Amino acid sequence: MAANGGIIGPVNTISIGKCVVTSKTATGAITTQPGTRIVDYLVVAGGGGGGGYGGGGGAGGYRTASSILVNGATPYTMTVGGGGAGGNDANGTVGSNSVAAFPSNPITSAGGGYGGKRNTDGGDGGSGGGAGGHCSHPPSAAGGCGTACQGNDGGSNPTGDYSAGGGGASVAGADATSAATAGGNGTANSITGCSVTYAGGGGGGGRGPGEGRICGAPGGTGGGGAGANGHPSTNDVAGNPGDDNTGGGGGGSVACANAGTGGPGIVIVKELNKASGVWSMSTLYDQRLKNEWMQPSVIVDYMVVAGGGGGGWCAGGGGGAGGYRESGGANTGCYTASPLGACVAGLSLFPGPYTVTVGGGGAGASDGPTAAVKGNNSIFGVGGGEGTTMITSTGGGFGGSRPPGCRCGGSGGSGGGVSADNNCAGGAGNTPPTTPAQGFRGGQKSTPSHNDGGMGGGGATATGQDSQSPHTPSINAPDGGAGATSSINATPTARAGGGGGGGYINCGPSSGGTGGAGGGGAGSTPGADAIVGTVNTGGGGGAGGNGGAPKAIGAQGGPGIVIIRTPASTGVAVSPGCNSVATLPAPAGSYKVATFTVNGTLTLS
User: Is-above-0.85 flag for pTM?
Assistant: First the structure.
């Protein structure tokens, strides 16, 4: 009897990683899925800092690995290298290494080399830093050396006059013979599902007016920072930093100004589904018995917005927006997601039902003793594993009310604003914390005076507006923080804006604050009630003013929403019938969008 149960042939490893993609933008552990046995990964180190009056920093080392064996349900530490500091009439600093510590194939990508200061060699690294130049002609300077299979050399300065670009993952920095030169281009990678370019070199810096003004050079594609341009009237111009989590090199500066910091690196791991070739009968039996045998999974994109918090009473604070969480859109057409979706993987789901909870908006404060109410959570995949088959967004914090109510704003997805006559901090956003943050804090007082009105509630992408100083009688109450805009349903729509603060109308025509873009309700103005958060945006409720009932009453937050986007080939059903499924028309076709405005069930087949 053959060892594989009677089938002749090699026994292959079965991996059920569900195609989960995890992007680490800071050092920490990645825990594999229980069925994962094989992974691919990308490791980019931190970019080198640009030279002061000098060359561009080299890109962080760029390395990939495929079909690496791992254990399931196991944490593996990933080290993400930071970018090197830029110099100030000094060499930059080498970027830090990034490491993927899988025991079967640990790999280290080397930090990018520093950009050299004036007429100084660039540093060695993943990609080498560019040489610095100056108008004094000699001496010439050499670019730093790149590391084999990770990057390229930095550009040299053969004449002594000009600063060179740092090397990139795909292209070396160009030699600076007659002008400052650009950083070398980086390398594109599609491990996340969308093509992203990493590890571009920083551009060489220019010269100021006292030394024959010239322009700096651009950074290489893949996050390289541009070199500083010479200014018509000042010698000191800072270089530009490398982009975050690209490993791009920093740009060189002009004269006595800081050169650009290198961009931090990144580690991205994709857990594979793989069961090709021949496998043992006993393995197949065990997998089927545990319901872990390979099934046709589908990777979906999502947006989950919680209910907004209620607005406060009598010159109260605006309600905080409901928490906003979204994937990056890489799996279903690379549509324009909000900034909160950057580097966020979709969910890998198997056929079956998924329970959806759509959070309602919190009630506004109706009088002093009755506090406004926090919004309710929205959840996709109730009962699943958070971050893998379940996503929870937290309800928005309530707006603070004037005495005898609770003056401080409540915490939540985004925090509620403080009432007019209180100096405590605005309600905390991103509570509990998620990465990226699901919201921001509410507005707070900058002076003891209460004449500004209540503060604005926090939004998905901005804090609620703080009080303004100095106060004038005609100033409006602070506004709610801005929400986030996504095209997940093919229509750009803003959601999760904070509620506006209530006006303090006894001290002049102080109008209520404007609700944040994305459904935030406006605060009460003279002769008008506070405005509720817009339905199914998760917008915070506007706060009441101090003009007496009913104008003092805070408004309710807007209910949230859950949207799931799948390939068109996926069978999608929703219940109850007030939720909907739509197939997107061209040019955004080949995808389905399930929209939940009330609690229900999504069934995939």
Answer: no
